[in-house]
Design brief:
Blueprint: H1 16-21, E1 55-61, H2 73-79, E2 83-88, E3 94-100, H3 114-131, E4 135-141, E5 146-148, H4 155-170, H5 184-194, E6 199-205, H6 212-221, E7 226-232, E8 266-269, E9 274-277, H7 280-306, E10 313-315, H8 321-328
Parallel strand pairs: 3-4, 3-6, 6-7, 7-10
Antiparallel strand pairs: 1-2, 4-5, 8-9
Helix pairs in contact: 3-4, 5-6, 6-7
């Protein structure tokens, strides 16, 4: 863990007390929309899974395809029409929260680092899941390795995992370089090896480095699980805008003004590589590249979410990520 002699800036790093305090903000949204029984998101709430010896739900007319073992013969004989008893299955959920804390997440041009957004939403989600009496586990991808914990219904385990998440978050700085073991493909490969079934998998990331193959593998994962992808992005990753930078981008004293007669060169770097926007043509080309790259990531995520008609959730770094997330999952 990196030692900080001064109090942490909550915009740049998250700390353990802040993650714990988010437990007080779990009201006003739910991760349990009404879905089909095969969906882990349905949980114990209004599952349409039918069976014998389960909780009685209703008595209704027989429909083609109903199991004749569920016929209520007394009602059928009395009414002259076949009736069946339907049941709901009460089942637990296991939720796996994947938190991206790689070096690309240590960036913001507005208010809050992407890494802080991911960590705080992970904490908020974990507390919500625990309040619903479900199991929650974590997969945290740092810049050096990927940490994994089994899903448990335990407050002590959530506290331990949030403390570990805060430590991994605080290890990030402008000098960090990701190891080969923490690529997005490595994360997807780990999820495949875990052989999850009937899990809700929530992925909080900027989706940096995602490939078409990764999306295909995640679609396979959706055959037995619900995968909710959350895209965390910064306005500067979409287009070069006049903003104050908290992250690793650097610029000259004034940003380029392509629509005016003057143009100020801009140098952009990540601490290892840098490039010069020396003229208006280069600036416009960079703008197009940023827009295309962001649109591609968004399109990949939309395709993934469309498989099970889950919402497309996109959060930014302007400091309103908790409210944005609650609204996106149907909260108020």
């Amino acid at each position: 863990m990196v030692e900080h002699t001064k109090p942490l800036d909550s915009r740049i790093y998250c700390d353990y007390p802040r993650l714990v305090a988010l437990q007080a903000q779990v009201d006003g949204f739910s991760l349990l929309p009404q879905r089909k029984a095969g969906s882990a998101l349905s949980g114990r709430h209004h599952s349409s899974f039918r069976g014998r010896g389960l909780n009685f739900e209703e008595l209704r007319h027989y429909q083609q395809g109903d199991d004749i073992r569920n016929l209520d013969w007394k009602v059928t004989m009395r009414t002259g029409k076949p009736h069946v008893r339907s049941y709901t299955e009460e089942k637990d959920r296991s939720v796996l929260i994947c938190v991206d804390q790689r070096s690309s997440m240590f960036f913001s041009s507005v208010e809050v680092m992407k890494s802080v957004v991911a960590a705080e939403i992970a904490a908020l989600t974990a507390w919500r899941v625990l309040k619903d009496s479900d199991r929650v586990g974590f997969v945290v991808s740092g810049h050096a390795n990927i940490e994994y914990s089994l899903s448990k219904r335990s407050q002590a385990n959530v506290l331990f995992q949030l403390n570990q998440l805060a430590q991994i978050n605080q290890q990030l700085d402008v000098t960090c370089r990701d190891s080969e073991q923490v690529s997005f493909s490595s994360l997807v490969g780990l999820l495949a090896r875990l052989k999850c079934r009937n899990h809700t998998i929530i992925m909080l990331s900027d989706w940096s480095g995602v490939t078409a193959d990764d999306v295909v593998h995640l679609k396979h994962l959706q055959k037995h699980n619900d995968v909710l992808g959350v895209l965390i992005s910064d306005p500067l990753e979409t287009a070069f805008l006049p903003t104050s930078s908290l992250g690793t981008a650097t610029s000259s004293t004034s940003l380029p003004q392509p629509n005016t007669g003057t143009f100020t060169p801009w140098v952009v770097g990540d601490g290892h590589y840098q490039f010069n926007l020396a003229n208006k043509h280069q600036f416009e080309k960079a703008q197009q590249g940023l827009a295309h790259h962001h649109a591609l990531k968004k399109q990949q995520l939309l395709q993934l979410m469309a498989v099970q008609q889950l919402p497309m959730v996109e959060l930014d770094t302007q400091g309103q990520h908790i409210e944005q997330f609650k609204r996106a999952v149907g909260g108020r």
